């Protein structure tokens, strides 16, 4: 059985949702970043953490790839063109969406107040809107890559949810429809109820 460590109101949600989609048994220990429990497993203090037997894994995107590959679901096979495209989706989401939201969070409540630059949020929101417009043009079906849900869909949906919470602009109807479809999935709803 897997053990997931981290607050659900963080990237830990991605891991919980993936496990629900996979139907894999897990326990969840809700710990905030930098807690003693977290630092004992990850010196950086970052969450999420996945314990699989004696192995301790960190970074939500790496954990998603590990789980998908291990279970042979939510992914295309390694070495295929489809997998390369899936990885491209994941990397661009982390680079062009997640990073903007993380920078906004850092300048809102994470960095020491004297180091925050609140004015940066206007630039981040503008760039986010540009990147959402590009993403909207890439959606190929009910999922990012057509008929197959992948870990990239989990990353995209979590980022859109985060953006809504942070009051980032979401203008594209296709993004709104995609988000509604993804958040109505039973596994997503079970993860929310966790």
Structural topology:
Blueprint: E1 2-5, H1 12-22, E2 26-29, H2 36-41, E3 49-52, E4 55-58, H3 60-71, H4 81-110, H5 120-138, H6 151-165, H7 173-183, H8 186-193
Parallel strand pairs: 1-2
Antiparallel strand pairs: 1-3, 3-4
Helix pairs in contact: 1-3, 1-6, 1-8, 4-5, 4-6, 6-7
Question: Could you provide a short overview of the structure?
Answer:
The protein is built from eight helices and four strands; from the N terminus they run βαβαββαααααα. With 194 residues, it is of the alpha+beta class.
Describe this structure in words.
- This protein has 194 residues and is α+β, with helices and mostly antiparallel strands.
- It has two domains: 2-74, Glutaredoxin (3-Layer(aba) Sandwich), CATH 3.40.30; 81-185, Glutathione S-transferase Yfyf (Class Pi), Chain A, domain 2, CATH 1.20.1050.10.
- It is built from eight helices and four strands.
- The protein has helices spanning 12-22, 36-41, 60-71, 81-110, 120-138, 151-165, 173-183, 186-193, and strands at 2-5, 26-29, 49-52, 55-58.
- It has a four-stranded mixed β-sheet with strand order 2-1-3-4, covered by helices on one side.
- α1 (12-22) crosses α6 (151-165).
- It is globular.
Offer a few descriptive terms.
194 residues, four-stranded mixed beta sheet, alpha+beta, 8% strand, Glutathione S-transferase Yfyf (Class Pi), Chain A, domain 2, Glutaredoxin, 2 domains
